Amino acid sequence: MRNRALFSVVLLAALSGCAYQSSLDLYLKGQLAAEQGRLPEALAALSAAIQENPRLGEAYIARANLLQQQGDIQAAATDYEQAVKLEPYNFTANFRLGVIYQQVKKFAQAIVVYQRALETRPLDPQANMNLALSLMQVGQPMQGLYYAQRAVQGDDNSATAHANLGVMYAQTQFHSAAIDQFKRSIELDGRQPEVYLNLGQEYFSAAAYEQAKNVLETARSLAPSERVAERLGATYFRLQQFPKAQDAFADALRMNSKDTAALNGMGATLMTRALLDPAANVETAKSALFFWNQSLQLDKNQPVIQNLVNQYAPHE
């Protein structure tokens, strides 16, 4: 009886070894098919590997990656979650699961898996950056700032890392540091209109309107947008270059006629011209009121604009 029991244990071990080898062969077959672009065959092989050995974490990761490429985010997340259960500190599984959570705005879950990924690779720049952005999304910019700094520490030559660190500094009211980071990002890659826009906004907040004008004009030359045009209008207004302000606000409104900031800016520009320019006529003031009223129709909760309308509207 003892010999028979021992034989059974040995046989079970041998069979388990065969199953493992079979699942490994299927996993490698799937990986090869994926590399060669044969995705249906790759998915079939990886699914067979998982069926053969449900504890093969790498097969779940590989299949999740293919599903993610095909846009099946939910199925990919399920596979990554299973991989994390099998290998809690597998960097790839945690990081890619975090990316999906972040994509579907499950930021609290993303924070957990990014933190776990960083226990394995503490200075990974992308994981640190994604964690910083997720923390900002849940209203914790100060905590996010730490990880944004580590992202730059992990890759000091990343324009994106410096740009995101600039955003985190701006969110935490460290405006001078934000300007430095945006400028460093532009030094590394001068083709980032969004970074020029952010830098322009920081200069505007610091009342450095000439610098704001210059970088916002660069942003507009790279990629015109309603936001850039509106900010340019506000900047030219502060520089008292009212015709240019009017043109910029008009550009913003051509791109989006419901941009309340541009409507308000156009109203302010026209009313200022009506008050300061002797050549301006009553029609200019009426046009200002028109734009302000258009803005109020879109958003009634603007007490400052409502007060301006009340102040300058003609009274019988």
Can you walk me through this structure?
The chain has a domain at 236-316: Serine Threonine Protein Phosphatase 5, Tetratricopeptide repeat. It is 80% helix and 0% strand. It contains 17 helices and no strands. α5 packs antiparallel against α6, α14 (242-255) runs antiparallel to α15 (260-276) and α16 (282-298) packs antiparallel against α17 (303-312). The protein is elongated and about 90 Å long. The model is unreliable at 1-17 (pLDDT under 50).
CATH topology of the domain at 236-316: Serine Threonine Protein Phosphatase 5, Tetratricopeptide repeat
Measured as a percent range, the helix fraction is over 70%
CATH class call of the domain at 236-316: Mainly Alpha
Which structural category fits the helices and strands? mainly alpha
Strand residue percentage = under 5%
Radius of gyration: 29 Å
